[in-house]
Amino acid sequence: MPHADDRTWLIDTPNTTYVLALDDDDRLHGLHWGRRLNREQAADLPGLHAPRARPVFDGLDARLDLNPAAAFRYGQTGLQVRFADGTTELELRFTGAHRDGDELALGFEDRHYPLDVRTVYRTFPDTDVIERRVVLRNRGDDPVEIVRADSATWVLPRLDDYRLSQLHGSWGAEFQLTRTRLPYGETLIGSRRGITGHQSNPWLALDDGTAGEYSGRVWSVALAWSGTWRMTAERSTDDRVSVSIGFGHDPVAFALAPGETLETPASAGLCTDGGFSAGAAAWHDYVRGHVLAHPGEVRPVLYNSWEATGFDVSAGSQMKLAERAAALGCELFVMDDGWFGARVDDRAGLGDWTPNPDRFPDGLAPLIDHVHGLGMGFGIWVEPEMVNPDSDLYRAHPDWVYHRPHRRRSETRQQLVLNFARDDVREWAHEWLDRLLRDHGVDFVKWDMNRPFTEAGWPGAEHGDRLWIEHTRGYYAVLDRLRADHPRVRIETCASGGGRADLGVLARTDQVWTSDNTDAIDRIAIQEGFAQLYPAQVMGAWVTDSPNPFTRRAAPLDLRFHIAMTGALAVGGDLRRWTERDLSRAEALVAEYKRVRETVQLGRRYPLRAGTVQGVQFNRGADTAVVAWRLERRFGYPDPLLPLHGLDHGARYRDEATGRVRHGAVLAEHGLDLGLSEADPASTVIRLRRID
Ligand code: DGJ
């Protein structure tokens, strides 16, 4: 609950306090972000009135929570505007604080120009996450150009050193977690592609370089937005750091019309003790508690046909796969790309969302009925924001795509991006999606997005650059409407794999297609990175064929299943070609997953490592699930025991498969004997239950 007096505010979470204070010039400083402080202690904080040795020449003050472009601000700024007369400096005056439940809003106005700025902070009783957003209002008669409107500028305390953890990647290699020393100056990560992007995910963490998986303090921040974005971590020469986070990207700027209000998406910030794993677990709790619409639901084991059939889709082939999937224990059958229009490959038909009459002569109903008859839900792939130029839709509406009059319309995968900033395009998308869901018993939608924006123009629009914001808002609006009208339907976010995973989309979807790379060994790193912010419940993980279609690497069936079992297990192989032996082993592994699924998807996650053995442990109530593997043994040495976490030292735990009873103290201090087979790679899943 935020406290307020005239000039200093404490934003308290269960374990932390963020302290804000205004200086004599109404500049808003972040004075503390760490363990809880009371009001008296906060009044004792150094900094606000301390003399600064070199106030002007460096011009750096990485302690501003609201850091607008202004005189002597030479570093990053979280708020930049250009008034009609060309003025770019803001001179803000504090106008008052307003508290409403767990929200604190601080109001400012420019001393001369009619622009209001509000910073809004939100806390929750059950998490240390603080949400921050900014609201701008143009009270004047002229438009104001918005160059940058960040959701938050998070101010870190002074540390001896700073280490940056980030998630970078590419298609098929998303969520690569790297930790590097934060350099002096500005470090910028973001996306200029129109979507969240594979190249960076909107999350980063900072520590002093000494934190480990289970020890140390970590500050991490994220952005709830699925369009272009940027995060700038600035380290000043005097070793102060702030991170400014917002939507939009350079050099896009757009006009805020007279009377208009702009509200940024929320940025979320978190300070945790207990190392990186505690930070990740706190994010998972926040996502479950305050982001996901259906946090208590476990995700079904789905089957997706993409890797099995590619574009070669027909009612018959899908029915055959569905029968095999049902026999394995899959609960949801998802038909992927290739079911509509002239979409027999990626050259044509995208945009024409009616079943291909050659492939589905009687429509989708026979397939859907067949799938339902097998006891599974039915899911379907769509890519509503895209169009092939060779489509009826494009021939009818060539102006519906982003384009510039004197530039070529560059294609990727033979497709162009539809302008979801336009009301008529949103209406069209909503209409056919609504019809698809209404006319058929569709239980699940996989919403894909397979190309970044280029030549992103909107000829004729007054403020064309607004499309960078409005496209994402349009995408959200269509999703929100569909969800409201079809509350039963669950949605998967996908953009060539994990290109659109963020806190914004997770408020509107139920799971993420994590990566098109389904190679179990590559997946270990991809999934570990993903798990820094997002819980296992939303991490789609398919078991596919061996050798893997993406990497050509062979891997045993058990390893493929076990790695996928640390997320929302799914199957995506060509089951028509699996041997009877593999099918029967797969059935047993799906059944085993169902036994640990609640623990994995809803439990607390602990990464495990001991020498050549790695794993992931999940605890929920009295249940523990350990998924562990060894990729390569060295010198024939025996596997080390794998120490577990989060157990009660005084309690005993029963191995649910063998009945063997183990002491929590021994499992934590010495470890669990995994009993892995000698041949590489080897893997297992072990279920433990606390018995006293
Ligand atoms: C990209 C997705 O990531 C794949 O899973 C698949 O749906 C293809 N698109 C279909 O075109």
Can you walk me through this structure?
This protein has 692 residues and is α+β, with helices and mostly antiparallel strands. 21% of the residues lie in helices and 31% in strands. Strands 6, 7, 8, 9, 11, 12, 14, 15, 19 and 20 form a ten-stranded antiparallel β-sheet that branches. An eight-stranded parallel beta barrel has the order 21-22-23-26-27-28-29-30, surrounded by five helices. Strands 5, 10, 13, 16, 17 and 18 form a six-stranded antiparallel β-sheet that branches. Helix 11 links the parallel strand 29 and strand 30 (568-571). Helix 7 (423-439) packs parallel to helix 8, helix 10 packs parallel to helix 11 (557-564) and helix 11 packs parallel to helix 12 (580-602). The longest helix is centred in the last third of the chain and has 23 residues, at 580-602. The two termini are 38 Å apart. Bound molecules: (2R,3S,4R,5S)-2-(hydroxymethyl)piperidine-3,4,5-triol.
